């Protein structure tokens, strides 16, 4: 770029030589630049002198200490290895022998002390005799092991005066290598610290020489600068730099600088080209340059201008004008010119780009707000209309909608998942319809070739028209103009195709629109694939959990039961419930909740539910069931932590409520581990929350579980639930509990099914973030006419009378055909209780859906089933009971145990299968085959 200098040639720019000499300042004047440089040099020299002196002192001190260490070691080792030293240390009076030698050695070696001592550190020698016999000050332990010790330590007074001593301690060994004494030699630090003093004059002399050179150099440089600047003052030099700064910082494209008289002082190449200026413009008035009237008036005016647009030939120029000297009266202006001829076109493209970026931002925010495949596809259609297209349709593979992994075999059959725009205006396929695309359609080509397909004019798109000729004809008549078909791909897998349409009222799609369409579809494809994968996992978890929950109601006489299970929308959790028949016509109710969601929570729930069934089979008390569950959850934690390498961190948590209802006593025993408290609805409709003690959740370990026993008259309803029913993000759990009480209030006459439905209708949230499990059980009372209880004396002779009473009771119940097997079972159980148990012995018969025989005694010993040999006289009693009863077992009470046996009844007869009684008994005595 060629720049014309515009500096004025007035005499004011070059002051007379005499005036310059009059104002010439001394080189050492602190107000001048040379004086300030000289002051800086003086400070630097002083700092260097101080630093050098300090370095010399420090280095000399370090050298002195090192020298003292060496001299101390040599002196100590020389004296320790001298002939006779070891023998003197072992003599009767070591001081008399060694003191003269030590003083002579000290003076000869030039050290401050030589001390000989025994192995306990008691001095035998010292420069001052009064210190002999005292404890040596220093470290001697390493020397006793045969090593040399060098250290700095203070001690008693020395001839050299006070100071820190550098001392060495060496061992003295006899001919056998045994340490018989120690020798220490040392020197005070201050005796050697004087070594740096001779070097101080050299340092100070060097500093003085440096200062002299600084004065001379400053004087010479000051004179040289005055000659180079031709005697210009600092203000004149600043004026020159102002022009250059104006050019450097005000330039945008073309630059013009004018003075107060309207003369052109500077014009760069760009300004010359934009305005068509001649070559010799420097110093010429603006009115003589042949510019247009508006430009000439602009350059001549002293007023500032900001972004004014002026026409110069065939160019539109944006002009900015600022005064050159805004703080002075000298005038002058700087004018910058920018060619804006193509600004309109560029602005249009920039606006389109800005709108596209805004739309991409809206797509990033508005697409993928949920994990539903069809909802995500509809969000893509809604975002693109009307900013990018007038009509949008999204067609997805059937596998994608179901959450399966898509394959190429299903490409020809796509389902319409979303429509954006006025669907009533155009004849498009409706939502949900399966569309079979022909190979020549843009949609199928986009899927097969995995690239965007552009149909700028649908009237010429033969493949699109052949798909459905009549539908295509009507769409063209209503104004469809162009199409962009984009494959929806994620992880290099095709999910479907997005179709963007424009009508005749909008410009047709161009090649520049394809990149944006790809970007928009790519963002939507990722969200759709995430929703698909979530749908698959959610479906798998729901299937797994539903398969682990009860399929139907078990047969039992104690409760009328109904339940509801609602999985969370964001993923199933670990809620479960169960109804488990127990011996003695009792029923166990279970309600639990595993922390977390997904397959892991569902699998953990299945393990816990199986464990509860196993513990219930053992007929354990409710607190022991929860205790065993607590141990199981703790073991599961340990297994999970061991697999993940996070030993000691809990990963599994669960709550559980376990209740056992006895219809004979109309009592319910329950305990809960961190679970919400149950709700009881009395027959009169009164709602209460029984005070069941709250224990710690499962998995914490070491905490007891307290039980509570409730009296539930017939017709009472026991409502169990998980926290998903009463807890929500919008309100506290106490609010949910109060709403539950309000719904249950007055529902004493409702059936459990009606109660469940009423609770779900009232409390189910619109968008559930947690599973909901609800179990309602209405109590029944076991009829007294079906209960027979006797006390049995602890005498085997009482067994026939019990059998007779049993036969009579069965006759009253119409169960004569079950008499033989029942009498046999009772005989064996009572005999075992009398023979092997302890009083009191009792019998109870329960007649309901089955016939239950119970024999209780005060012993805690459990009978064991075994197969007796042919030569054994006994051991077949329980085997016979097991053959004639449907099932049998033992449960423990606070006063002993109960052995029970159940027989299923069909039309008043026992349903036991197998051999006839006589044949069966004879078969037990047959010899086993070879």
UniProtKB/TrEMBL annotation:
Positions with biased composition (Basic and acidic residues): 10-24
Main location: membrane
Compartments (UniProt record): Cell membrane
Domain PAS: 240-280
Single GO biological process annotation from the record: phosphorelay signal transduction system
UniProt membrane topology term: Multi-pass membrane protein
Stretches for region Disordered: 1-24
Keywords: ATP-binding, Cell membrane, Hydrolase, Kinase, Membrane, Nucleotide-binding, Phosphoprotein, Transferase, Transmembrane, Transmembrane helix, Two-component regulatory system
The keyword Kinase is assigned to this record: yes
PROSITE patterns attached to this UniProt entry: PAS
GO cellular component: plasma membrane
InterPro entries: Bact_Sigma-Reg, GAF, GAF-like_dom_sf, HATPase_C_sf, HATPase_dom, PAS, PAS-like_dom_sf, PAS_4
GO molecular function: ATP binding; kinase activity; phosphatase activity
Listed transmembrane segments: 38-62, 200-221
PANTHER family: STAGE II SPORULATION PROTEIN E, STAGE II SPORULATION PROTEIN E-RELATED
Record protein name field: Histidine kinase
Organism this protein belongs to: Streptomyces albiflavescens
């Amino acid at each position: 770029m060629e720049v014309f200098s515009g500096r004025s040639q007035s005499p004011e720019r070059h002051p007379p030589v005499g005036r310059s000499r009059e104002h010439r300042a001394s080189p050492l004047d602190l107000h001048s630049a040379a004086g300030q440089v000289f002051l800086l040099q003086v400070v630097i020299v002083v700092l260097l002198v101080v630093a050098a002196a300090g370095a010399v002192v420090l280095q000399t001190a370090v050298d002195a200490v090192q020298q003292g260490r060496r001299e101390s070691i040599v002196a100590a080792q020389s004296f320790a290895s001298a002939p006779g030293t070891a023998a003197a240390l072992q003599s009767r009076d070591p001081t008399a022998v060694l003191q003269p030698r030590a003083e002579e050695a000290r003076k000869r070696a030039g050290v401050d002390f030589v001390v000989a001592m025994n192995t306990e550190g008691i001095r035998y020698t010292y420069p001052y005799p009064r210190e002999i016999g005292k404890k040596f000050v220093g470290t001697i332990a390493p020397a006793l092991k045969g090593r040399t010790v060098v250290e700095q330590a203070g001690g008693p007074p020395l001839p050299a005066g006070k100071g820190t001593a550098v001392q060495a301690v060496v061992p003295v060994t006899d001919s056998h290598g045994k340490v018989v004494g120690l020798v220490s030699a040392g020197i005070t630090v201050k005796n050697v610290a004087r070594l740096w003093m001779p070097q101080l004059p050299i340092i100070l002399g060097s500093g003085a020489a440096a200062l002299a050179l600084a004065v001379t150099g400053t004087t010479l440089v000051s004179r040289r600068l005055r000659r180079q600047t031709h005697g210009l003052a600092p203000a004149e030099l600043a004026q020159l730099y102002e022009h250059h700064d104006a050019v450097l910082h005000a330039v945008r494209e073309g630059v013009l600088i004018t003075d107060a008289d309207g003369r052109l002082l500077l014009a760069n190449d760009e300004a010359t080209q934009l305005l068509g200026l001649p070559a010799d413009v420097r110093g010429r008035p603006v009115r003589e340059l042949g510019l247009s009237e508006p430009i000439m008036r602009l350059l001549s005016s002293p007023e500032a201008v900001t972004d004014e647009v002026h026409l110069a030939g065939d160019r539109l120029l944006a002009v900015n004008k600022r005064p050159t000297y805004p703080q002075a009266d000298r005038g002058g202006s700087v004018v910058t010119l920018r060619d804006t001829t193509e600004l309109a076109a560029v602005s249009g493209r920039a606006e389109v780009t800005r709108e596209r970026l805004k739309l991409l931002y809206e797509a990033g925010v508005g697409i993928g707000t949920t994990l539903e495949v069809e909802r995500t596809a509809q969000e893509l259609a809604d975002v693109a209309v009307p900013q990018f297209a007038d009509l949008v349709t999204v067609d997805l593979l059937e596998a994608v909608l179901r959450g399966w992994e898509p394959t190429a075999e299903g490409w020809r059959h796509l389902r319409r998942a979303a429509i954006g725009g006025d669907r009533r205006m155009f004849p498009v396929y409706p939502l949900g319809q399966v569309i079979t695309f022909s190979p020549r359609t843009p949609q199928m080509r986009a899927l097969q070739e995995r690239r965007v397909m552009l149909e700028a004019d649908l009237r010429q798109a033969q493949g699109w028209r052949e798909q459905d000729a009549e539908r295509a004809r009507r769409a063209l008549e209503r104004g469809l103009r162009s199409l962009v078909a984009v494959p929806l791909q994620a992880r290099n897998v095709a999910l479907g195709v997005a179709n963007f349409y424009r009508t005749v009222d909008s410009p047709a799609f161009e090649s520049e629109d394809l990149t944006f369409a790809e970007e928009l579809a790519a963002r939507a494809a990722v969200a759709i694939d995430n929703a698909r994968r979530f749908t698959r996992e959610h479906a798998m978890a729901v299937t797994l959990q539903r398969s682990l929950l009860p399929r139907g109601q078990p047969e039992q006489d104690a409760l009328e039961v109904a339940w509801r299970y609602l999985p969370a929308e964001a993923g199933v959790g670990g809620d479960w419930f169960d109804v488990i028949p127990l011996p003695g016509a009792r029923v166990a109710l279970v309600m639990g909740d595993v922390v977390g969601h997904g397959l892991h929570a569902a699998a953990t729930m299945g393990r816990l539910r199986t464990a509860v069934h196993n513990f219930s089979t053992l007929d354990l008390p409710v607190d022991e069931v929860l205790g065993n569950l607590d141990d199981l959850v703790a073991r599961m934690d340990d297994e999970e932590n061991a697999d993940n390498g996070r030993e000691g961190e809990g990963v599994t948590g669960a709550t559980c409520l376990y209740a056992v209802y006895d219809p004979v006593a109309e009592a319910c025993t329950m305990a809960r581990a961190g679970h919400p408290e149950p709700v009881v609805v009395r027959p009169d409709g009164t709602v209460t929350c029984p005070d069941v003690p709250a224990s710690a959740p499962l998995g914490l370990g070491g905490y007891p579980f307290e039980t509570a026993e409730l009296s539930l008259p017939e017709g009472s309803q026991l409502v169990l639930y998980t926290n998903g029913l009463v807890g929500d993000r919008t309100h506290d759990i106490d609010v949910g509990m109060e709403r539950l009480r309000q719904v249950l209030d007055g529902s004493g006459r409702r059936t459990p099914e009606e109660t469940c439905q009423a609770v779900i209708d009232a409390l189910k949230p619109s968008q559930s973030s947690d599973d909901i499990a609800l179990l309602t059980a209405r109590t029944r009372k076991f009829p007294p006419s079906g209960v027979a209880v006797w006390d049995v004396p602890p005498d085997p002779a009482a067994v026939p009378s019990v059998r007779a009473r049993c036969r009579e009771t069965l006759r009253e119940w119409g169960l004569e055909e079950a008499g033989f097997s029942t009498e046999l079972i009772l005989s064996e159980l009572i005999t075992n209780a009398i023979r092997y148990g302890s009083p009191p012995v009792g019998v109870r018969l329960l007649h309901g859906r089955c016939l239950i025989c119970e024999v209780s005694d005060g012993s805690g010993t459990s009978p064991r089933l075994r197969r007796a040999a042919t030569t054994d006289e006994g051991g077949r009693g329980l085997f016979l009971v097991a053959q004639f009863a449907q099932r049998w077992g033992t449960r423990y009470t606070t006063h002993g145990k109960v052995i029970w046996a159940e027989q299923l009844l069909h039309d008043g007869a026992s349903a036991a299968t197998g051999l006839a009684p006589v044949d069966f008994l004879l078969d037990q005595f047959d010899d086993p085959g070879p």
